[in-house]
Design goal:
The protein is an alpha/beta fold and about 625 residues long. The protein is about 25% helix and about 25% strand. It is globular, with a radius of gyration of 26 Å.
Length: about 625
């Protein structure tokens, strides 16, 4: 048992000696050879999100100057680092903590994320927890990616599926050679887990179990149709209930792979630090409830990097790690296993940048070839210029009121796509900040050479990769106010630690006061249209509560995603174009020299679209986007 490993080892040796003593005094009896403790290496990462190519530069901490941060990641570089770690110890296993697919760049998503699976197979992945984005296209598609086979659309194989003959992988699509694990995801139809609850790997005759889970609140962060027919059970209860089952199989070494995480609270945020011990985070609370049998936790979801030792339910500290996202880092945990007790007696973790300029760790040529061939297939579409902007539009909250410039552009595009009466008759639109991905819309030219200010289809898709469709609904003034009120942490359906702001289209602005109680934080709201401006809320009072407006959101929001349950009460729904198509069509009207100028449309009387009472310059809510 974990409580006294040394004593358990001594008792094991005494028992072995007793067996020999009971052998009838035979001169041929020999004592079993003593097996000393040995080490094995766990290699892990999380939130890959199909980043076949390098996501850019990254530093070991925020103190590293931007100019000194190396380019990191990319599937070929990751394969090289994993191979190098494997060479350090033949006793190894490669695992993940979810979101390996979904919200992926065009180079993977255009091909239904088959490229991501193919490179992960060659990196050597063995077990991966199911993340929330694994459900973006529904559980049936997740099962296809696990088992293999071509993607069919309307009964026909899609021309963008099963490209192995071109890129050098098997045909039909091979499926994941690793196992997705979903211990707390249960099918209502079968009352069984959707996928295997755990995986087991044996080292020198000792079995080590890996329990895989996504976070319980997943249904609120993905499109409801993606998780239809599934239950997401409590993570702590699920893990603790599996401990007796694993011990019945003689397993004492147990590692949890979970798609949930936290953030360091300090400013330095070194990749191997744990500033603040992730205080108050969901992952810290989870670990504190885990049975003492759990030896280590590899986590994810928040796209943060940390290397912690956190207390479990018995007060024993265990490693809890996360490797940022997009393949920027790789985690190694060297575990010491005592064969006598079959338990992990020591675990030492380390995060390492997957630097592309490390001559000692060459990129994997076979993986690089696959990526290069997929890039050839996608480049004609990806490098097409679709519009232009006058300045950088980031996907982060740029002020205390929580405005997100890239989200404002997207909201404008969705309003434009649904303003015609035949297409919805919308007068305003909202974009969820969590759906604005990547760093936003870059002003500087990319490697494709499109020129400063120009936006390519690939760049636009990277910012908005979900393939959501637009939905226009009828909402009363009261309903709009109720929707805005449920943006704040602990209000309506929002978790206690998460604030999710909805970004409005041009012409709509609102003011909020965080000092007020839930339900009373939206103090003012106005709508400006071609016919003039009108007040919807004044000094906290709803004006004309029953008056109705046509409002556009994406289908994820319309179905209650991100805790916006009020939107499900909207009526007279009309479906619209895909979000990326609306964005492309909108930007087509803003090609140089008439580029999109956010400052020209975002301001109304000198104030931004979202305003805040008070002097705070810090937007609440922790993360800038919802991973």
């Amino acid at each position: 048992m974990k409580q006294n490993l040394f004593a358990a080892g001594v008792m094991s040796l005494i028992a072995a000696a007793a067996v020999v003593a009971c052998g009838g005094g035979s001169n041929n009896a020999t004592a079993p050879a003593f097996q000393p403790p040995f080490t094995a290496k766990i290699i892990g990462f999380n939130d890959f999100h199909g980043n076949l190519e390098s996501p850019g530069t990254f530093g070991e901490n925020t103190g590293v100057p931007a100019a000194s941060r190396p380019a990191v990641g990319g599937a070929a570089a990751m394969a090289g680092y994993v191979a190098a770690l494997k060479r350090q110890n033949p006793l190894n296993v490669v695992v993940g903590a979810g979101d390996f697919i979904g919200a992926t760049p065009l180079i993977s998503s255009l091909f239904f994320d088959e490229p991501a699976i193919e490179v992960l197979n060659r990196i050597g992945m063995e077990f991966n927890a199911v993340g929330n984005h694994e459900f973006d296209q529904g559980s049936a598609e997740l099962v296809r990616l696990q088992s293999g086979g071509c993607k069919t659309v309307n009964g026909q194989i899609s021309p963008n599926s099963c490209k192995g003959a071109t890129v050098g992988t098997p045909v039909p699509f091979e499926g994941a050679k690793f196992k997705w694990l979903s211990a707390n995801v249960v099918s209502n139809a079968t009352s069984k887990t959707l996928l295997q609850p755990y995986g087991i790997k044996e080292f020198n005759g000792v079995k080590v179990a890996f329990i895989g889970m996504t976070f319980e609140a997943t249904p609120g962060s993905v499109t409801p149709t993606g998780v239809a027919g599934l239950q997401f059970k409590n993570e702590i209860a699920t893990v603790n209930a599996l401990v007796p089952e694993l011990r019945a199989q003689g397993i004492e070494s147990i590692v949890v792979l979970v798609h949930q995480g936290g953030f360091q609270t300090g400013a330095l945020a070194d990749i191997n630090a744990c500033e603040g011990n992730l205080a108050g985070s969901e992952i810290a609370k989870m670990v504190a409830g885990f049975d003492n049998a759990i030896d280590a936790v590899i986590s994810g979801h928040t796209h943060a990097a940390y290397n912690c030792m956190l207390p479990n339910s018995a007060g024993r500290t265990i490693p809890v790690t996360s490797s940022s996202a997009f393949g920027r880092l790789v985690t190694e945990i060297d575990i010491t296993i005592d064969p006598a007790t079959r338990d992990i007696t020591k675990a030492v973790a380390k995060n390492t940048l997957t630097a592309n300029n490390n001559a000692a760790v060459p990129a994997d040529a076979a993986v690089a070839s696959i990526v290069a061939k997929y890039k050839e297939l996608v480049s004609p579409l990806a490098n097409t210029v679709i519009g232009a902007i006058t300045s950088q539009l980031v996907n982060t909250r740029v002020d205390g009121a929580c405005n997100v410039p890239a989200g404002s552009l997207i909201a404008d595009s969705q309003l434009a796509a649904t303003q015609p009466a035949a297409l919805g008759g919308a007068v305003l639109a909202f974009m969820n900040s969590g759906g604005v991905r990547a760093p936003g819309f870059n002003f500087a030219s990319s490697a494709a050479g499109e020129g400063d200010g120009n936006i390519t289809y690939g760049e636009a898709f990277t910012v908005q990769p979900f393939g959501n469709s637009l939905t226009t609904i009828t909402m009363s003034t009261q309903l709009i106010r109720d929707f805005l009120e449920e943006q704040f942490a602990g209000c309506g359906g929002q978790p206690a630690a998460t604030t999710r702001f909805a970004l409005p289209s041009a012409g709509f602005k609102y003011t909020w006061n965080g000092a007020n109680a839930c339900g009373a934080r939206i103090t003012n709201a106005t709508l400006r249209t071609a016919t003039g401006a009108e007040a919807l809320i004044t000094n906290g009072v709803v004006q004309n509560p029953t008056k109705t407006y046509r409002v556009t959101v994406n289908n994820f929001m319309a179905e209650g995603g991100d805790g916006y349950a009020t939107l499900t009460r909207g009526t007279n729904r009309i479906g619209g174009a895909q979000d990326i198509d609306a964005l492309s069509a909108f930007l087509a009207g803003f090609k140089a020299p008439n580029a999109y100028n956010l400052a020209a449309v975002a301001l109304d009387g000198g104030t931004p679209r979202i305003n805040r009472m008070g002097t705070s310059s810090v937007c609440p809510g922790g993360t800038n986007t919802n991973p």
